[in-house]
Amino acid sequence: MVTTVQDSSAQVVRGPATTAPPPEPRRRKGPASRRDDTWVAWLLVAPAILGFGVFFAYPMLRGIYLSFTEFHILTPPVWTGLANIHELINDGRFWHSLGVTAYFVVLSAVLGVGVSLVTAVVLHRLGVSTTVRGLMILPFLISGVVTALVWTWMLDPQLGIVNQLITRVTGEPVMFFGSDAWAVPTLAALNVWKTMGYNAVLIFAGLQTIPASIYEAGRIDGASEWQMFRSLTLPLLRPILVMVVILNVISATQVFDIVQVSTKGGPADASLVLQMYIYDKAFGQFDFGYAATMSLALFLLLVTVTFTQLRMARAGESDTN
Known about the structure:
The protein is 68% helix and 1% strand. It is mainly α. It has a two-stranded antiparallel sheet. Helix 2 packs across helix 14 (288-313), helix 3 runs parallel beside helix 8 (183-208) and helix 13 runs antiparallel to helix 14.
């Protein structure tokens, strides 16, 4: 019996071919990915940093240093410590100019914000066009020197058109810039005329953020226009009004150009604001050390007043609830 042994070859059965997934791209970590753009960021902010350092940081630090020295234009500064501060405390003309500045600031801020608020409310109620609002801001774009020159001619006691009208009514002109009683109020009126349009546009923008449904609810409750203005408009405008007041206070405290052109601090120092006194000390008497001390005092005063106004008026809050 022949036995046939048939060797069968082993067959390997393979399944469908599988392809391995491609390797994931390496992700750069956050700091590494930003490192390539850092030089671009520094390049973009470099002009601003350079301008800040050259025109603000260095002059401020230099002024603080000079405020503790005796420095005249032709001699190097000599360190005197607190001598300038003692002189400042005992300087009656400094306190007089500070009082004149405070008087001017109060008149400018109260009249300016009041007139701007009324104007903005009227514009909001009437719904005037953008062209009218653009025309209102034109006085703000005029330089202070031009404003002072034009109004000086108009208020001239002999040739000014305003005084000619006053003379026809009262029989005698008004010495707007030549009277102790009229000098500061006249300068404040010029400042109000120049800034009123800009302030009104700011307040007008704040009025547009108040929902109309609030006024509709007030009318349904039978509230009058005055009651809605007092109980709705003013509380809801608090952040905008605080900003406008602070801007007016800072601008009025730093007034110089209209005083220099119109009155030059006269008559008899009646309109001698602090900026005029600092200018006279620095460029009239060349006492830059003492002028720097008064500038430092003015800076600290502005910072104190600003933060006090922000804290007392709760600038970041509004009665929306």
